[in-house]
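agent> Task received from the user: take the single chain below, predict its 3D structure, and emit structure tokens. No templates, no multimer pairing.
agent> Plan: (1) validate residues, (2) run structure prediction, (3) serialize to tokens, (4) report one or two observations.
agent> Step 1 OK, no nonstandard residues flagged.
tool_call: predict_structure(input=
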Amino acid sequence: MKNYMNNISNRIWLLAITVVVSIIIVAACADEPTTFKTRAIGSPGELLVVVEDKYWEADEGQYLKAILKDEFPALPQEETMFKKTRINYEQFKRHFRTYRNIMLVSVRPQEVVNRVEYRKHEWAINQYVAEVIVRSPVDLKSLLKQKWPTMKGFFYGGDIQSMADSYINLYQPEAVSHIKSNYPFTIYFPKGFKLKKNKGQFSWLDTQRLGSQLGIFVYQCPLDSLGEINAQSLLRFRNNLLRKQVPGENRGSFMTTEEQFPVSVNKAKFANRQWIELRGLWKVQGDFMGGPFVDYFYKDTDNNQLLMISGYVYAPAKPKKGIYMREVEAVLKTIHVN
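)
tool_result: status=success, residues=338
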């Protein structure tokens, strides 16, 4: 009996020692640097701004507040491009360091030049950080005037890239297979996208959700059939194509471009190619339907082909449409030439 009790006592002491040693090891490891990074938190379009109160509330901070109200382009209702959260540096710790998009504003008199530093995956995966460094508060406005367009593109492009990467990893096989089988490239569609129409070299895929529809058009034709390619010829080409291929619900109705709203024309680079981008609003002629769209055109001179990939959103009951436009744009930018 005595030996039995001694054995139990020894086991208890051994267990206690093991627990204490484990705690010491864990505590020691916690102080060691680690390369582990969690995924960034927050939705696309969210931006954390870290700047001290005295600069945020001062005259120099007014321009910063103004540019953060920049509108998302080509939407039927006004909507800011970024939803901001503002904190000071004392609060910038723990989960705040894992935000998706972070803008740091630092005033450092000892610095030689004013600048913006861009960093990716700083504290989290899929994180984009832009640090604005100025020698004095009065330099803040002039630097932001010069650098804000690039910063805005950095954050927006990061959101699009992160979403595109997620679609490539988890996609709708049937939709991807259709494009891959009928065109010399692949586009990765997220779950829910289905083929709605396939006619010749025109494909229409969409996904229906509660109160919204996201659609993608893919089309290619001989390049020399268009003649001169410019903004006006591409707009005519777009409208002729939609009139033939995208009918409305009412007899004789069809999708077209809303002429009462300006269409922006820009250059874009992705998939190692230069594209022409059109952004604007679409409508259904003969019906009360409409929403935003984005088109990309690529001139494949080697194969005498014009490629058009287009995304549109129809969400009449949704006051915020920016997130949907990010989604369709991200789908288009998954394109990979086979």
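agent> Step 4: summary for the user.
The chain is about 30% helix and 30% strand.
agent> Done.
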